[in-house]
Batch of 4 targets.
Target 1
Amino acid sequence: MLASMNIAFLGLGRMGFLMARNLLRAGFSLSVFNRNRDKAEPLAREGARIASSPAEACRDADVAATMLSDDDATEQIVLGADGLADALPRGAIHMAHSTISTALARRLAAEHQRRGQGYLSVPVFGRPEAAEAKRLIVVPAGPPALIDRCRPLFDAIGRATFVAGPEAWQANAVKVCGNFMIASVLESFAEAYAVLRKAGVEPHLFLDIMNSLFGSPVYANYGAMAAEGRFEPAGFALTLGLKDIRLALDTAREVAAPWPMADVIHARMVQGVAQGQGEMDWCSIAKVAARNAGL
């Protein structure tokens, strides 16, 4: 019975496509929308219905999920002409997986409440390979009753669910703080590898030591990519990483919390984008550190 829920999924980028496919394979009835219709065709061959607009995708939905690149794209799809919010039935839920600002999350919650709809922020942690394997970490926040209704969807895309709090924007705060932590690992590797290469030490040896010390897939995966200079194709582009660090700094300003390390990472990412690395993986900030060290 749970799998008979009607789900609309809007935004079929690298992550969204894989998440939508896992919902479809879990047995949910799925309607999909993407600006580039071609990206939706493989899902149609597996039984999804392709909608011509966000409104069409959502008219009969119990839950509408969005996985979009940023605040502007989310606002346009949800609140723009022929958008999600005006078409979603009363009592249905909008579940936003996108990494968006806490300010936009509060606005979306208010807009949906005004229309008699539910809203949850449900960001996820994990790269595309984790999304494909249903190994994402899912972080919902919002009214507990809505979270309970959506748990079968969380289980279909992820390996663990952690509820961030009763206010939807709290999940967005967790997401940007988590991405800051990952970015801090990238910056640490970038600086350490630059020093080690100048000292004549093999970065992979250092990575083996760090993997033994920390035992973290974040260290193992990103450390290897940075050591090998494997920055393309991007699993998560540097431009998106820069956007997320800006969101993190905005959140810190909202709560009046100094964040000096985030300022350092922001500057490093700006430098990388300015030097033409915007579409490379965000761990390509290692190239910036190497250049600054004269390598």
Target 2
Amino acid sequence: MKLLLRGASAYSPMDGLDGETVDVLLDRGRIAEVGPRLSADGAKELDLSGLVLMPGLIDAHVHLRQPGREDEETIATGTAAAVAGGFTSVLCMPNTEPALDNQGTVSYVVEVARREGNCRVFPVGAISVGRRGERLAEMGELVSCGCVAVTDDGNPVEDSALMRSAMEYSGAFGIPVVSHCEDMHLSAGGTMREGYYSTALGLSGIPDVAETAMALRDIVLADYTGARLHICHVSTARTVDIIREAKARGVPLTSETAPHYLVLTDADVVGYDPNTRVNPPLGTDKDRAALRYAVADGTIDIIATDHAPHASTEKEVEYDQAATGMIGLETSVGLVLSELVAGGTLSLGRMAELMSAGPARTFGLDGLGRIRQGAKADLTAIDQQRTWTVEPARMRSKSRNTPFAGRRLQGAVVLTIVNGRAAHDPLGMLG
């Protein structure tokens, strides 16, 4: 079926669209035409006047938990949450049980996603066997079955020689190495960011240099090997500073941060809500300010959710016993619009870059992140004026671990199109 989307304000940085009113014709899973006042015989027409249209959003950091922890999330429920949040593609992390460190496990994820997924799923393979940091996984095998990057996310690669080898091999296969930057000796035993609030609350602290020290090592290795390095979940001002300096020197480096680091601080741990326990921990006001500046000026390339579902038994415990992580797929767009776009930190064009074009470019996702003829028909329509309240019980994710319950947000996804078809249509716009 042909579908003609009329009158939206389109934002697509790679295509020079920055709020222009255009029509977009979709046909057989592709964008057939983009322009003003299009006509198409036999097409179903949908009026998107007053709405924002972006290339389908891409979440570069998601934990789908399958295989192994289907009690927390599955590929089906995680991708249902993704499309509800406006994401047409997700990159799934390898810290499953077993890890995505071999062709069989990765192929399983690819096949389940093909059958049960609501959006595109791109697996990220493990750097090391079992994510134990002892022996490299077979990178060529992982790439051959669909992995777009490698990481031991959840664990840092502490062995510098192993990380060097991973970077050298990654260059041969044309993929980035994604680094979880954490010096485990510095972070050991910590539960939140070290500082005033950790002292006041009587919780053990993690110094910001636990992240920055490892980030600096990996940047030096990337500079030495020429490998493409991607630093995930940046949370500190110090790390921002060294990324900015390295990029200025031409190091092949990209990075991401998450909405919770742009919105919350260590002050939000007051009250001991275990849903505020994340890794790396929430930073200070200074960290948040630096991160906001970094996403605005291009130092940080991507906003990714680090969607980390956990069962209630792992979260409804004492703060220092709680699992780290929060869900984020269904709140990301609302938080970014309410806190960053409405506040003037980001333009809508920059939001589209950080949440669609940037991930597509970083991970080589051909045909995605664009609104142009021939691109894949993945699109996200947003109503900036629509207000809503975060209600965990109504979320599509299997888990409920969000600190944003009850928060009023302005800006909502009203249509998510994957491969030319409506994957999320809460207002029944397509009937």
Target 3
Amino acid sequence: MPCYRCGARQVDPARGHSPWRRGVKGDEQVLVCPGCQASADWTADLDKCRQCGSVHLVRRLGEVECRDCRMTVAPDTSLAAESVGPSAVRAPGLSEEVALALERVLGRGAAR
């Protein structure tokens, strides 16, 4: 999954803590790269918990959970009504990247 702000992709992480941060925007899980975290107020457009206002949210199995107060929200009652806006960079999906790489390496179209 690329950084939702700049489109950069994670590389194989070193052992230990990852410098990338998770968040939720428009009821979708997003990642933020270390470069974008350096910008002023990089959390401003992330969804916030209705109970405590935290941006430490994680989306799993269709639910959004606050990592600070543990409030869980079902998918039909999302934390934010707005979706990822046009300012976000949409990088090609991983499956498309793999298909293009296979085509380059094998010199033919990838099996479908």
Target 4
Amino acid sequence: MNTSRPVSRRHFLAATAASTAVLGMPRVLTAQKSDRQLVVGEEEHRYEVQHNWARLPDPFTWQTTHNVAVDADGLVYVIHEGRANLPDHPSIFVFDPKGRYVRSFGNRFQGGGHGIEVRTEGKDQFLYVCAYQQVKAFAKLTLEGELVWEKYAPMDSGVYRPKEDTVREQRWGRDAFMPTNFAFLDDGGFLLADGYGSFFIHRYDKDGNWVSKFGGPGDGQGTFNTPHGIWIDRRPGRAPRIAVCDRAHHTLQCFSMNGEYQETLTGYGLPANLDTWKGLMVVPELHARVSILDEQNRVVARLGDDVERVTRLEKDVRANPDRWIDGKFVHPHDACFDADGNIFVAEWVATGRVSKLRRLG
């Protein structure tokens, strides 16, 4: 696979579907109506599907939804990629647990909004946001949207072209800065995945100063082709480690907390991001499904699976909501748990879609 440039999301459906071979053989999970509920999964991994769960008031409009995060009070934060030609439109929207609109902000990320995470620091919570395209920045915000700091390409890393930290233009390449997602470290620092740009994972201290990097472009086992999502896997029964969605390789790569390669997990279709709850890990896959892994990283559920139709049988399903099927996903781009194990799924679709999977098991 050519690693000289990222796989365009507009052409990702041409990626080989052979990558969707499963890790082991989970049960076939089908959507079913039960007491007027739309239910996916079986036994302890059953969820009620609530598509278009969030309600957006006028004058706002849904745009391409990218990522989702939940704070300690259960409020849900959704970031749009947004449109550069709508600079006055917010890119971040906040909803209560029932999907009711609370507030919005984040105009500065319009046209490039991507990663969003909530972090508790002492008694306070903050949003960490990154944006690609022409924005090329990452920032720390209060939960109300006030800017704490904003930063650009880490020129000390030695991987970016001159002035990459000052020139705001959309440009792809391994010397471009196009950050996609965060993971948080115990010492107050964080990791930032440059998933569309250099393909490096950057390490920062608690004040947002660049410290080091690992990864870079390559064929796997420590190098990447679109390291799109990143997470610190702190599930019980193992030492904490870094997990990276090596999206265009259709794998998850695992590293020590020092960035040393450990292993590769195969069997995904463009994995986009990660989150954990108790012993489970959720993996949203752009190839039309959401996977659930247990403590041993065995696939125990694949929810909303519509891989065959979306990747092989029909073209451009994402742009035609009338062809979306209840209980099925089109292109899950991010997913996260709340405190009760419910899952929120943001899909990379033209009109935006955020679904709630209410845990029943």
